[in-house]
Amino acid sequence: MTNMAKRLFDFQNGEDLKIPVLIKSADVRVAKNGKKFIALVFQDQSGQITAKLWDASEADIAQYKAGEVVLLSGKRELYQDKPQIKIHSMRLATQEEGNDPQQFLQRAPEPESEIIDAINEFVFEITNANWNRIVRKLLHDHPEFYEFPAAKSNHHAFAGGLAFHTLSILRLAQSVVNQYSSVNKSLLYAGAILHDMGKTIEMTGPVSTEYTLAGNLIGHIVLVDEAIVEAAKELKINLEAEDMLMLRHVVLAHHGLLEYGSPVRPQLLEAQILHDLDELDASINMLTTAYQHAEPGDFTERLFGMDNRRFYRPTKGQTYPDPGTN
Amino acid sequence: MTNMAKRLFDFQNGEDLKIPVLIKSADVRVAKNGKKFIALVFQDQSGQITAKLWDASEADIAQYKAGEVVLLSGKRELYQDKPQIKIHSMRLATQEEGNDPQQFLQRAPEPESEIIDAINEFVFEITNANWNRIVRKLLHDHPEFYEFPAAKSNHHAFAGGLAFHTLSILRLAQSVVNQYSSVNKSLLYAGAILHDMGKTIEMTGPVSTEYTLAGNLIGHIVLVDEAIVEAAKELKINLEAEDMLMLRHVVLAHHGLLEYGSPVRPQLLEAQILHDLDELDASINMLTTAYQHAEPGDFTERLFGMDNRRFYRPTKGQTYPDPGTN
Amino acid sequence: MTNMAKRLFDFQNGEDLKIPVLIKSADVRVAKNGKKFIALVFQDQSGQITAKLWDASEADIAQYKAGEVVLLSGKRELYQDKPQIKIHSMRLATQEEGNDPQQFLQRAPEPESEIIDAINEFVFEITNANWNRIVRKLLHDHPEFYEFPAAKSNHHAFAGGLAFHTLSILRLAQSVVNQYSSVNKSLLYAGAILHDMGKTIEMTGPVSTEYTLAGNLIGHIVLVDEAIVEAAKELKINLEAEDMLMLRHVVLAHHGLLEYGSPVRPQLLEAQILHDLDELDASINMLTTAYQHAEPGDFTERLFGMDNRRFYRPTKGQTYPDPGTN
Amino acid sequence: MTNMAKRLFDFQNGEDLKIPVLIKSADVRVAKNGKKFIALVFQDQSGQITAKLWDASEADIAQYKAGEVVLLSGKRELYQDKPQIKIHSMRLATQEEGNDPQQFLQRAPEPESEIIDAINEFVFEITNANWNRIVRKLLHDHPEFYEFPAAKSNHHAFAGGLAFHTLSILRLAQSVVNQYSSVNKSLLYAGAILHDMGKTIEMTGPVSTEYTLAGNLIGHIVLVDEAIVEAAKELKINLEAEDMLMLRHVVLAHHGLLEYGSPVRPQLLEAQILHDLDELDASINMLTTAYQHAEPGDFTERLFGMDNRRFYRPTKGQTYPDPGTN
Amino acid sequence: MTNMAKRLFDFQNGEDLKIPVLIKSADVRVAKNGKKFIALVFQDQSGQITAKLWDASEADIAQYKAGEVVLLSGKRELYQDKPQIKIHSMRLATQEEGNDPQQFLQRAPEPESEIIDAINEFVFEITNANWNRIVRKLLHDHPEFYEFPAAKSNHHAFAGGLAFHTLSILRLAQSVVNQYSSVNKSLLYAGAILHDMGKTIEMTGPVSTEYTLAGNLIGHIVLVDEAIVEAAKELKINLEAEDMLMLRHVVLAHHGLLEYGSPVRPQLLEAQILHDLDELDASINMLTTAYQHAEPGDFTERLFGMDNRRFYRPTKGQTYPDPGTN
Amino acid sequence: MTNMAKRLFDFQNGEDLKIPVLIKSADVRVAKNGKKFIALVFQDQSGQITAKLWDASEADIAQYKAGEVVLLSGKRELYQDKPQIKIHSMRLATQEEGNDPQQFLQRAPEPESEIIDAINEFVFEITNANWNRIVRKLLHDHPEFYEFPAAKSNHHAFAGGLAFHTLSILRLAQSVVNQYSSVNKSLLYAGAILHDMGKTIEMTGPVSTEYTLAGNLIGHIVLVDEAIVEAAKELKINLEAEDMLMLRHVVLAHHGLLEYGSPVRPQLLEAQILHDLDELDASINMLTTAYQHAEPGDFTERLFGMDNRRFYRPTKGQTYPDPGTN
After folding, report:
1. What average pLDDT does range F273-294 have in this prediction?
2. Which of chain A's residues have a Cβ under 8 Å away from the Cβ of F172?
3. Residue C81 has pLDDT above 70, yes or no
4. Would B91 be classed as within a structural domain?
5. Residues above pLDDT 90, as percent of chain F
6. Mind spelling out the 3-state secondary structure of E168-195?
7. Cross-referenced InterPro entries, in alphabetical order (chains A, B, C, D, E, F) (predicted)?
8. Whole-number pLDDT of residue C58
9. Rounded CA gap, A16 and F179, in Å?
10. Residue B78 CB neighbours (<10 A)
11. Which chains touch F (3+ CB pairs under 8 A)?
12. Could you report the per-residue pLDDT of A124-142, keeping only the tens digit for each?
């Protein structure tokens, strides 16, 4: 029982484990033999792993649902080059055993309070009064901004990932602003803070993340634009003034290409830069995560978010800290 | 002087003319010989035609500007397969000679009052109360909707073209609703009426039409979405309810493809139908206009809005009434 | 035995059934355990559903073939989000039990005789004598036109679907003709009736539909063009005259884009309209079918014929009648 | 006058010339100074070159038309990197001076009679009786096949170019057949002979080549398919037999890709090979022509038919005989 | 035991076999029941076939590895339309039983010595001294060139396939050179011999072929360019001279399109021809192989290397010799 | 004469000027009236501007060539929205008047010596000995690296632009390295310094920049790879070791996409980052240059290097220093 403190990815393939984990998702399916099983994804702060509970009874189906913490006994194995858990047995964790889903979420590698402080430092730098007020108001009205992931999968898919991704872009933006005097710092910072805020409406939250109906039918880019417009109305800021059109444009255009869902392509220097920094930070996050799960000297699995490319992890030298766990 | 009642396209190539026309645009340029000239586009209700005023003096440049009515004496000619006017002389028209730009605009083939009535008939058919109220409010708040063209060029590029295009789609939609019982009539009608209303903000108006800064940086699709959201707020309609997400979706998705500027692709039956009817009506309008300017047995010029295709005008049979003049 | 009158899609998931059904297709495969099974598709007028007959004997394989009617006892279940039948037992139906495959085909929602009458009404409207004679001759020579589906899967994939799809386009075309005076009614109607007639050669028929060798190597667009040319020869119509080139063009161009298999793009107004109406009717049919199989408040499965999009079925309001059953 | 025997491309830039030439095309246009000029293309067996006749009188316009032979006095010059003629004077040639347009056409580098014989040799090799009879019949019915160019511009754009291109493909095909025993010789030869025969209907002929209405609305691929079907009917060959579907497929698929106008993609080995050899021969012809007009050590102009690439002509070594003059 | 001389593809579906075969690849996986199995590919000179060894013990996993020869007892079956072996039993072959992997490799249809001689004949024809010396040196330095396959799968995926593919291109090139006098024979031959030589570095060899790290990170096109540059340095040939730039260009451009991995597109006639012949020979090889495995009157499986097309094998006439076995 | 110290872009449209300028390019052409003129591009440190010398004599053509300094008297004007010079008179500058082309080149905004020092600082940070030695050797062997532009036009098209672009990327890379611990600093710096060094072979130099034959036929990406391989050979570094494959990969892949000319796509984290930073710095440079030439409140001209987009210059706030002049 000494390995109770170990986490999912502390075990090697072939090793037995007995630890508490969170059920991230649980889909009931019918096997080829006609019996039901549950396709499970377990999660703790070290990462996520799949498992199947064969010959699932109705009682199993009733109790093993997304969001539950279970005591899992099993063995880590490889199935088609991906790790999975072969379940020996499992049961729901009791309160005393630490049945708190929050304890099992992957989190940003910096504490939430530090991320809040760091982003607020950047807000101070926004010298255009209208932009500053809107950014403050939206941060204030959306405290869940600091809890959400940046995506359902792909990149920064962990609690606090949205704010951490935003902060990472701001730090890159700071370097750009220092290096190129033609860049409007206030506009780039304001755009960076707001650009993905619509994801708090597009998705359901950090646990069992799904897309909402608004997310599917409207999309996070238009949703945040609506929020900006509403904030400006409430603050009695003139929406037809150039500065407001610029702020909205930088946010609307941040996907860079129409086929990626932006209704307009970047037509301001800061819109182009925000798009480039967004892609740069997302790529580094995706690759660092992928490298963690690849052996030195091997290629990663194909990465959907990187045009299905595989990346090579060199045999030595770099280490790849989990970009989603502090 | 008896031909004063004739209009630009009533003259043949090679024929002399002396008529009042509106200057639609006037660009000052430098010729290869170093002297200035004015590249003009003249317009009356029969259509538009280009001309050049060579060796333009500063006085010429000062007085011949877009929006002015002039008395034009010249000859219609062909230049690189397109008609143009060779200017003999011209001067500003006096008040008595009818210096009213409104008289020279191409207009929708139905009177504005009939278009208003016809659209209002469709509004009655919108039985969802929220959609009905929003459509009414936006029509009421945007009386210029009945004056605007549907585009700067391409299709329905005449005064009242926006409303006439909307009405044409509604009439097609009525046939679809009658034929297919699975279609939500209220949603299709509401979406049709609102889909291009953002163009009243995207463009400057029916005379000397240009894109506004908001049109360039935000685009008419997001602009009308903002208007819907504002209207709902004022009418205290719940924006998070399914019906509002559906209405906004139908409008946001009406360009059909992301690369055409819709931030989301159609995910409702009515969104798909609205997109298809929008394209159908625009195509028929573009082709009818092009056929008017082609000889029977010839091909039209290449049409930018139809993937640069040329279309064949048969030698006999059909007539092609000007789709933009009543 | 009282549920003998119920049909496949009248049962809920988890419910037992015992009904006669048609075997639409039967593929013999080897399971992972090395034993043979038959992958079956059952069909009645309510739709189609898959099933697997495990551990199939040689006798099973010999008797359970496409086109046979069986008495099926089993349970409806969900497998990977799609309905399937878990077979308890089955045997061939006797003559007395109603062993007539025709009784189990999905059919167009209007009786064949009414479809024939309705199409003939449109033929009357074709005033160009050459087009009228060719249309009459080809309808006369291809009585199977009224029996075929419009496609193997995708849209209107039921007996009589080809003629019903044609009639739906004609009805839309009638609205267009009434609304836009520049459209040549005779050409649009003639093109609409002929456009997909090559499918009677491209496919094998309404039961166990497959593509023929001619369908694969020549394609239905060129096959119908050949039929038009042959008809003109027999009727001693001048193939080099403009009207025949126009009719053939409208048919050849109806897929709209070269990459969709048309050897030429639309270069006549009526060719463009026919293409647009063809897509519109096919889309409405595909979506209505998909909505029928989705729950209110859910998304449909991804639709191959709609660029793999999923569509949202609203929680209330519309009903979606089976577009392929009268 | 000794240079009367010299031809257009025997003169250097800057050199005066006085020779008879054919007017290939003559377009009347209006210059920037408002006066008319004729944009001419002159042609003799050495190639084609442009010129402008400034301040053209109505008499000039009346007499200098495509198809006329003129006595041209002028100077060869470079205009925007392309050769052109500066006209000193010109007049219509008299009968005695050799006013025969046929003498000025570029021609295939082999005499027509030899091309006919060579193609007939290949016909002997077609051992499938149906294919052989159809090929013979179509060659017999289309004697103009030996006079037509293979294209209006691009490749083999000279009298006899169509047959010469066909023969070149047959010779390549012979090498392929000898090298790969899996290839059906009869099918490849029959397909090669027929593949472009529809161009005799698609275009107007070797002088002043234009596309016909049938060429524009139907296209040469479907036109030759119709001819094959007609021939089979007359010869009472069963069109539904596999061999006829194969022959038609090879011809229909020879553009290789749907977006290049083939209604089906190659699905037979011989269809794939014919497409590849067609492209190979066309490329070599285009490049050899382009190299002729480039200086050693320079790049050719951009070639539309080669994806707008420029090709490098090495400083020494190869010579590039005119691929279109015997 | 009399069928010991028969090979894998000499057996019909359903027939028992007992023969020695080579294990081409062996992947250990976990079955749905949680037990391990080995996914095997067996190979002899008649081709390759898959099999699964269920419930594999650790001893099985240890001994049945790629490169081993085993005595296989089993039955040939069809699984999802593809042939596979159902294993009855198997054991490692002893030395006496012929445990030599080389005996089980598929090979080019001409003996290696003849291929070497034939290629050397072509080397004699390269009259440019620099190109001749480089080709000789690289052939001399890379004797494995005659042992390698041309690809891991796709086309010429057998021992000696690289040299045989090269020779096939040279033979086609010879026909082209004889037919078109504008082609530089030396350049085309030199380019053809060198174009794929980088594959000897890109892949690991004819047994258990995999891509090397250099193959993945640099690619065979740049690898052979490096080899040419190195050879020129050692032979003290001026790399900046035109002829060396030409040779390198022909090799670098042979994939034809940037998206196929060539860093430059063809800009020399010979580069374009080499690309076309490379595709032609690869296509014929792929199709001939696919036809071998299809029944007359059927379509082949979808071919990845031919844009996922299926090809039709006619019911009679042609035979399709194994393109990879002499 | 007091304005002799003013430079080209210090004058307004309509203003007369009399200053020395460098002829950057001079193309002789024939005007529509048949007379020759010289199309000139003048240049000084403030930028480039076009002009035409009409009715050019042979003497004019002989003396006014690229690379000459002239005393120019003329007027700045607008022609089709772009500034140009209307020439009053011009003559070659004498030695005393400062006939030194170097004085008229646009230059990087930092002195060359500081750029050299700054890049050398980064070299110190490359701790992999092989990479460090290769970078040092190539910088040492290519002193012209500090003189070349980064491109013929597009971005950093000024003397020293190549090194300045490199340094800008290094500075961005420094920020990235500091922020993300998973990045290999040595690899990113070494790749950044080498990535565009092949441009010193691909182009002719900072004056009258053209592409060399090697540039056209091989391309700068393969040319620098060759240089790295050569350097490694001379330094006796093992080219097959992983670190050398990694360095070459980062350089070869820096265009990011095959269609942009990289023979392989990025498969290392550092390769992806280098590509992203290369694009970021190039975009900022292109946009800053374009903003300089646009008026506040206007859009720039369409930028070829930015997918033909136009960018909006806000009415106030930012200033845009010339990114190519110190």
Report:
1. 94
2. 175-176, 179
3. no
4. yes
5. 61
6. HHHHHHHHHHHHCCCCCHHHHHHHHHHC
7. HD/PDEase_dom, HD_domain, NA-bd_OB-fold, NA-bd_OB_tRNA, YhaM_exoribonuc/phosphodiest
8. 86
9. 37
10. 13
11. A, B, D, E
12. 999 999 999 999 999 999 9
F232: tokens are: 């490694």
Tokens representing E119 are: 């290629």
Mean pLDDT of A247-273: 95
Q: Which amino acid, one-letter code, is at C81?
A: D
Rounded CA separation C161/B188 (Å): 26
Structure tokens at A44: 């703790």
- Beta-ladder partners of B69: B22
Same-domain pairing of C264 and C209: yes
Q: Are residues F207 and F165 in the same domain?
A: yes
The answer to whether C105 and C324 are in contact (CB under 8 A) is: no
For residue E319 the two structure tokens come to 């035979």
Contact yes or no for C272 and B283 at CB 8 A: yes
| Inter-chain residue contact D29 with B80, CB threshold 8 Å | yes
Which amino acid makes up residue E311? F
CATH of the domain at C32: 2.40.50.140
d(CA C1, CA C17): 9
Give mean pLDDT, residues D222-241: 95
d(Cα C79, Cα C107) in Å, to the nearest integer?
A: 27
pLDDT at C270: 97
- Partners of C84 in beta bridges: C50, C77
Question: Which of B54, B80, B312 has its CB closest to that of D217?
Answer: B312
Q: What is the model's pLDDT at position F9?
A: 81
Chains B & F: contacts with CB separation below 8 Å? 13
Burial class (CB in 10 A: 0-12, 13-18, 19+), B155: buried
**What's the total number of domains in chain C?**
2
* CATH number of the structural domain spanning residue E260: 1.10.3210
Residue located via tokens 């819907």? B228
| B85 and B117 both lie in a single domain | no
Q: Are residues B145 and B89 in the same domain?
A: no
Question: What's the pLDDT tens digit per position in B52-76?
Answer: 998 888 889 989 988 889 999 999 8
Q: Which of F278, F248, F270 is nearest to F165 (CA)?
A: F278
How many interchain CB pairs under 8 A, C with E? 12
- Sequence letter at residue E197: M
Helix, strand, coil percentages (3-state) for chain C, rounded to 5, are 45, 20, 40
Task: Indicate the pLDDT class of residue C2, thresholds 50, 70 and 90.
Answer: very low
- pLDDT at position F6 is 85
The answer to whether C86 faces chain A, any CB pair under 8 Å, is yes
pLDDT (mean) for E234-242? 95
**Is the separation of the CB atoms in B53 and B90 below 8 Å?**
yes
CB atoms near residue F72 (< 10 Å): 23
Cβ-contact C38, E38 below 8 angstroms: no
C256-270, D77-91, E103-117, E118-132: which range is least confident on average?
D77-91
Give per-residue pLDDT as tens, B130-144: 999 999 999 999 999
Residue B8 dihedral angles phi and psi, to the nearest 5°:
-50, -50
Q: How far apart, in whole angstroms, are the C-alpha atoms of residue E51 and residue E87?
A: 7
Q: Which of B265, B279, B314 sits opposite C242 (nearest CB)?
A: B314
**Do residues F150 and F278 share a domain?**
yes
Q: Which pLDDT score is estimated for A318?
A: 74
Distance, C-alpha B37 to centroid of its chain: 29
Q: How far is E113 from chain A (nearest CA, A)?
A: 38
Model's pTM, two decimal places?
0.89
Question: Which residues span the domain enclosing F164?
Answer: 112-285
d(CA F39, CA F17): 19
Q: Are A104 and A22 in contact (CB under 8 A)?
A: yes
Q: How does DSSP assign A154-209, residue by residue?
A: SSS-SBTHHHHHHHHHHHHHHHHHHH-TTS-HHHHHHHHHHTTTTHHHHB--SSS-
Q: Chain-centre distance of CA E174, in angstroms?
A: 23
Cα–Cα distance between D30 and F115 in angstroms, integer?
Answer: 57
Please report, as a single letter, which amino acid is at residue A180: Y
* Residues A200/A142, Cβ–Cβ less than 8 Å: yes
